[in-house]
Amino acid sequence: MRSHPLQQLILAKLRELAREPEALFWIFVFPVLLALALGVAFRSGAPEPLPVAVEDGPGADALVAALEASRDLRPETVAPEDAAQRLRTGKVALVVVPGETWTYRYDPTRPDSRLARLAVDDALQRARGRADPVPAVDETLTAPGSRYIDFLIPGLVGMNLMGTGMWGIGFYIVNARSKRLLKRLIATPMRRWHYLLAQIGGRLVFLVLEVGALVGFARLAFGVPLRGSLGALALLCGLGGMTFAGLGLLVASRARTIEGVSGLMNLVMLPMWVLSGIFFSTSRFPEVAQPIVQALPLTALIDGLRAVMLEGAGVSAVAGEMGIAAAWCVVSFALALARFRWS
Amino acid sequence: MDGMREPAVLCRGVVKRYDDVVAVDELDLEVGAGECFGLLGPNGAGKTTTVEMLEGLIAPDAGTIEVLGCTWRRDGRALRERLGIQLQETQLAEKLSVVETIRLFRSFYRRGRTPEEVLGLVGLEEKRDAWVRKLSGGQRQRLSLACALVSDPEILFLDEPTTGLDPQSRRRVWEVIQAARARGGTVLLTTHYMEEAAHLCDRVAIVDRGRVIAIGNPADLVASLGAEHVVEFAAAAPIDLAPLRALEGVRDVVESDGSVRLTVAAVHRAVPALLAELDRARIDLLRLATHHATLEDVFVSLTGRHLRDE
To answer: Does some domain include residue B310?
Structure first.
């Protein structure tokens, strides 16, 4: 007749979340849209030719003709006064100034400009009759697993686990506390650990759905591989979900207002958004910052996800990452439970 | 009380301080089983702190509390099974339906009523599947009562059950409380509406600044004024109260907020005497009203202040 309180508490949490269209957007639609947008923006395929400019002047037409012979370049003739501006605004990668000798004007810190320098020089020298001492053959391949979208998807999965874990638990609890619902609940014989366990249970249900949606979408739309086992992926996601549930619980353990908890959430999540390698590799950060970067739970989770999804790593290969996440999980849960305020 | 049954609620010398403010000051209460008992007092009198201590949600700084013969420290969890509690200003989850909310609360208790039964008790059958968000203030309050009634409690604690409700919704809440009462439960409620206390309660404790200043049956408390009527007037100029006390049939004179209240045995004698006195003192009358004495008048005569800030 009476259903178990744990079941009722989980149902209540799931119902409330499922009836919140904004929450569903952020959990399911937003990551997919982000993956779609970035996947399209950084798609591989036929490489775009590099735009380069030739300053108008004697001999300019011959240079343009020579550059047009290259598949890698898209030359245009521009007036000398416009050339600098087009280079500065990134419309072209390099400017060629014709004359007795050629001048290449470019910014060496821009990778596309350095590529243009090589391609332009190659095309012009060949047009003047340079012979290659050794003939070479190009063999090109674009393999799933090494493109930007492949790098990106595990990052987005990690980012989503962090965001929904922290918001899904923290917001829900602080909302209940600010409405005195927590106090009302402890005025019943409800066991307090049932309530906290229900938060985690409800979270796990959504976790399966949201990871499934994003990984499934990435596979269908972009062919992003899952080289490791589903079990290893599930274990990592489950652990990551727990870790961020723990952090969410900790952040929400005392806050009484939504504004208060929002500030704390952002304080905790912002460094990880920047540092944990969601969109680019953490190796871009200097050596001195690496101990901090690598100790963050999101870095560990994303590194583990990349290893499992892209390199086919097993559980033992990502044990280090799982250890870092587990340590955060245990510490944050312990602190949260010690500090938790029901009224 | 019949002496055989233990009191439903017993507290002795209970003190609660917040920083240097004493919210509850040496409070003694005894509520008999089957009784409807009211704590009546203005906002900030310590009513909520008192009931929340009785409900085991706040620990007192001193004193003893026994509920159904149990203490919170020793038998807290078992005690929770036997109580129904409504807190002030609880907002239930907006996006759960009425019946989902009741089922959730039902799941916390080992025994109790079915959700359908409770819906009937509070008259929310038609709103069964409506989201809490769509309910009116009165309906929310009845849902909150439903959550308190779902365990079929031996004691029902209600903190300001009708604050902010329109008169019609208030009547419906009263009906629910009276029905719960009629089934033999004990009710302990707080209110700052004297009509509510008079209408529902067998006994009332008038609370002010953390202390019980009067306790008894509402009718007896009113009778303790020694007179049945109150004449209240405002004068155009300050008036000397001493001659008024000497008027025929006047038991008590209290001045508060610019108006003067005379507690009188017979209006038809006191009013002409009062008018004559004002005439003699050459003071113009701005306003004059008379009414049957109420608990409000008891409060005013004890404290010189009104229950509600007007």
So the answer is: no
- Residue in A5, A20, A343 closest to B107 by CB: A5
Distance from CA of A210 to the nearest CA of B (A): 22
Express each pLDDT in A193-213 by its tens digit.
999 999 999 988 989 999 999
We report the CATH number of the domain holding residue B133 as 3.40.50.300
Supply the CATH number for residue B288's domain: 3.30.70.980
Flag whether B147 is in a domain. yes
Residues B97 and B144 in one domain: yes
pLDDT greater than 50 at residue B62: yes
Q: What is the largest CA-CA distance in chain B?
A: 73
A179 interfaces chain B, CB cutoff of 8 Å: yes
Q: What angle do CA B26, B32, B37 make, to 5 degrees?
A: 70
| B32 and B167, same domain (yes or no) | yes
A69-98 pLDDT per residue, tens: 888 889 999 998 888 888 888 889 999 999
Cβ distance B114 to A1 less than 8 Å, yes or no, reads: yes
Chain B residue with minimal CA distance to A15? B96
pTM of the predicted model as reported, rounded to 2 decimal places: 0.80
Say whether both B191 and B149 belong to one domain.
yes
If one counts the domains in chain B, the total is 2
Residue B87 to residue A16, Cβ atoms within 8 A = no
| Rounded distance between C-alpha atoms, residue B128 and residue A157, angstroms | 39
Residues 6+ apart with CB under 8 A from B242: none
> What is the spatial distance between Cα B120 and Cα B45, in angstroms, rounded to a whole number?
35
Show the domains of chain A with their CATH numbers: 5-42+145-339 (no CATH), 50-127 (3.40.190.10)
Cβ atoms of B38 and B156 closer than 8 Å: no
Give the whole-number percent of chain B exceeding pLDDT 70. Answer: 97
- Do residue A19 and residue B105 have CB atoms under 8 angstroms apart? no
Burial A56-88 (b: 16+ CB within 10 A, else e): beeebeebbebbeebebbebebbeeeebeebbe
- Split at pLDDT 50, 70, 90, the class of B236 is confident
The tokens describing B179, both together, are 């029905």
Query: Within this chain, do residues B129 and B255 fall inside the same structural domain, yes or no?
Result: no
User: Same domain, yes or no, for B276 and B236?
Assistant: yes
For an interface test with B, give the residue of A188, A197, A258 to mutate (most B CBs within 10 A): A188
The answer, for B103 touching chain A at a CB cutoff of 8 Å, is yes
> What is the value of ipTM here, to two decimals?
0.85
Tell me the count of A-B CB pairs closer than 8 A: 72
**For B251-286, how does the pLDDT look when each residue is reduced to its tens digit (9 = 90+)?**
888 887 778 988 888 888 888 889 998 888 888 888
- Residue B232 structural domain: 226-292
